Amino acid sequence: MTCWFRDRHDAGEQLAGLLGRLGPWPANTLVLGLPRGGVPVALPVALALKAPLDVLPVRKLGVPGWSEVAMGAIGPGGIRVLHDPLIVRLGISDDAIRKVEARERTELSRREGAYREGRPAPVLSGQTVILVDDGLATGATMMAAVGVARASSPQRVVVTVPVASTEAHADLSALADEVLCLCTPPDFRAVGQYYQDFTQTTDDEVRSALRAAHERSPMTRPENMALEILRREQRPLTSDADLLPLLDAIGDARFVLIGEGSHGTHEFYEERARLTRLLIEQRGFTAVAVEADWPDAYRVNRFVRGTREPTNLPPVPWVIFSGFPAGCGATAWSRSS
């Protein structure tokens, strides 16, 4: 096919057609554009796949005095990828690299806050992540993006671009699960040569693209936004250590309430009992209040306080605790004054 694009939107439309033909894509697909130029390319892709769109901020480390040529790239979390052959060939010093990186780290932090406009960063764990840029020359920026994405344990990482050098395509194929590219010209010199309009993308254009995708995404429906919040905040509970953040959140509170929407599962009650024990052992709580039938609750209270039971009643643990906590709707612990 002819490797020619009117602008980034046209390149995105053509990429969307390619991905549509390779579908269907799983429901957990997330499209991430590399700002700034990758975001207007990613928008048509996200809309075509009915997938959420967000950004993965990475910054190119430009060669001193020749900033359009990438000698490496950085991403959030201290990720840095260097194009060592180019650095050696041009004789770029470590000090020069550090100066460029310090400048770009400042810009990276600014962009992370500016683009999302208060929206939280997306959850990548377990997702099929499609990384989109407007093209690959050395591929250093995209390699940093793949490294950042991999650190969050996604299910798959797919790199998608309109055009790439054969070298960058090969390098990314070794890092990503899949690289989808419309064309890899043998005479590739620069990404811009394949665009009629390759005007630099502005911050406002990035924000506008993200807003457009957010407004049209199924994930903006209230029920789906609630699911996204749950996915982002959920934590596995496998040991006492996993409950320590809850204890930290409790702080010096005298009352702790643990509720449930309806009767909980067996696993829920196990975790609630474990948390109760930690509150008693580590935080000094001494009283337990439960919603339950009064006769049974009173007998449990007598058992805990060491009060003797009438001789004609069965042992408390087998009779009462077989009904606890299945009949409890909410539990409260009160710290002694």
Describe the SSE topology.
Elements lengths: L7 H15 L6 E5 L4 H12 L3 E3 L3 E5 L2 E10 L3 E4 L1 H7 L3 H23 L11 E5 L7 H11 L5 E8 L2 H8 L4 E6 L19 H14 L5 H12 L10 H7 L4 E5 L6 H18 L1 E6 L3 H12 L10 H5 L9 E6 L2
Parallel strand pairs: 1-2, 1-6, 6-7, 7-8
Antiparallel strand pairs: 3-4, 4-5, 9-11, 10-11
Helix pairs in contact: 1-2, 2-7, 4-7
Structural account:
The protein starts with 7 loop residues before the first helix and ends with a strand. The strands form three sheets. It has a five-stranded parallel sheet with strand order 2-1-6-7-8, sandwiched between helices. Strands 3-4-5 form a three-stranded antiparallel sheet. Helix 1 (8-22) packs parallel to helix 2 (38-49). Helix 2 links the parallel strand 1 (29-33) and strand 2. It is built from twelve helices and eleven strands. The protein has helices at 8-22, 38-49, 84-90, 94-116, 140-150, 166-173, 203-216, 222-233, 244-250, 266-283, 294-305, 316-320, and strands spanning 29-33, 53-55, 59-63, 66-75, 79-82, 128-132, 156-163, 178-183, 255-259, 285-290, 330-335. By secondary structure, it is of the alpha/beta class.
| Class computed from helices, strands and strand pairing | alpha/beta
- Just give the CATH class of the largest domain: Alpha Beta
**Amount of helix:** 40-55%
Helix count, per DSSP?
Answer: 12
Strand order of the largest sheet: 2-1-6-7-8
Kindly estimate the percentage of residues that lie in beta strands according to DSSP.
Answer: 15-25%
Instruction: Please indicate the count of domains.
Output: 2
